Amino acid sequence: MAGLLAGLGLPGSPWGSALAQGYGPPPGAYAPYDAPPAPRGRAAGPVDPDAATRMLSARGFSNISVIRRRGATIILEANGPRGERVQVVVDGASGAISGMKVIGFGDKRY
Length: 110
Hints:
- This protein has about 110 residues and is of the alpha+beta class.
- It is built from four helices and five strands, in the order ααααβββββ.
- β4 (about 95-105) and β5 (about 110) form a beta hairpin.
- The longest helix is centred in the middle third of the chain and has 10 residues, at about 50-60.
């Protein structure tokens, strides 16, 4: 019975009234990286490097630099929200982060 109550977000669950109020569990450690791209509307064309830089900045990335563009893919380097230096691959068609690799910490590379 406790499992049923937990699934419904009722007082027997670990999240108790938070789920009942429409709040979910706290975001995971990778929330800035897994966030869906912001809606851009139907008239918006492909994402350019400046738009990719603004999108990463809005997600908490800093010290962003565009490395290169390969077709519809944009490759950038940035400091992640937790300070790690990452190489980020952004899909130029949708604006979504399609890949990421940690390459250092702060301004130091591995």
